[in-house]
Amino acid sequence: MNSKEIFKQKANEAGYTQVVDVDLSKLNFEPSLLAMCAQNACGYYGTNWTCPPGSGELEDLKKKILSYKEGVLVQKMYTLEDSFDFEGMMAGSADFNTLFYDMMDYLSGEIGDKFYSLKAGSCDLCEQCTYPDAPCIIPDKARPSIEACGINVSALCDIAGIPYIYGANTVAYDALFLF
Ligand code: SF4
User: Fold this and answer.
1) For the CA of 54, the nearest atom of ligand 1
2) b/e map of 113-123 (b: 16 or more CB within 10 Å)?
3) Which residues are bridge partners to 171 per DSSP?
4) In testing the pocket of ligand 1, which one of 47, 50, 97, 128 has its CB within 8 Å of the most ligand atoms?
5) Rounded CA gap, 28 and 112, in Å?
6) Which atom of ligand 1 is nearest to the CA of 141?
7) Residue with the nearest Cα to atom 5 of ligand 1?
C-alpha cells in the first residue's frame, strides 16, 4: 500500500464520517478569506501561530500544499442536543482534534515525514500560545488552519463531493491530509 492508502485504511477504522480523495488541482487559494480572518469574527486572529498573520504568507502556504500530489479530506459529524448545545460543539471539536493528532502520530510512525496535514480552526495544543513573543513550541504538530491557507472549507467539501453541513442539531469538522 502507498502512503495515502495506509492513511485511508486507518482513517476508515478510526470512525470518520467521510474519508474522500481531493483533487488538489481544483483547490482555490483566496486572499479574500484572509481579509475575512482579519475582521476577527472568531476571536483567534493574531492569537496563535496557526491563524493569520502568524500562519505566514498565503503564497508560501499555497506552495507548500501544492508540493504534495494527493489529498484526502476527512470529516466527522457530531449530533447535538439542540442548536444551542455549545458544550456538545466543544466536545465534538475536542474529539476531532484528538483524532487529528492521533492520525498524525500514526502516520509519523508508518511513513515518517512524507505527509502534511491541515485542519479547520485554530491550534489549541497549548493552554497559552507563545505567539508572538516566542516561536511555536510544538512546530511538528501545529499546522496552519485550512482557512489561513485561503481555502474555503465549504468549497473544499464541494470539490471532494461531500456535505459541508448535515442539517439541524449537527456539527461537522474537517481536516485535509496531503501525501
Ligand atoms: S503548538 Fe502551542 S505554541 Fe504552537 S501554535 Fe499551537 S498553541 Fe501556539
Assistant:
1) 5
2) eebbbbbbbbb
3) 78
4) 50
5) 28
6) 1
7) 49
Question: Picking from 2-11, 34-43, 103-112, which range would have the lowest pLDDT averaged per residue?
Answer: 34-43
**CA-nearest residue, atom 2 of ligand 1:** 126
Segments in 27-85 forming alpha helices (H): 31-38, 58-66
Could you tell me the residue ranges of all domains in the chain?
16-178
Q: How far is CA 74 from CA 63, 96, 127, in A?
A: 22, 10, 26
pLDDT tens across 46-61, in order? 999 999 999 999 999 9
Write the single-letter amino acid at 170. Answer: T
Q: How many residues does the chain have?
A: 179
* pTM across the whole model: 0.95
Ligand 1, CB within 6 Å, residue ranges: 48-50, 123, 125-126, 129-131, 136-138, 142
**Helices and strands of the chain, counted as H and E runs:** 5, 4
Pocket test of ligand 1: the residue of 55, 117, 126 to mutate, having most ligand atoms within 8 Å of its CB, is 126
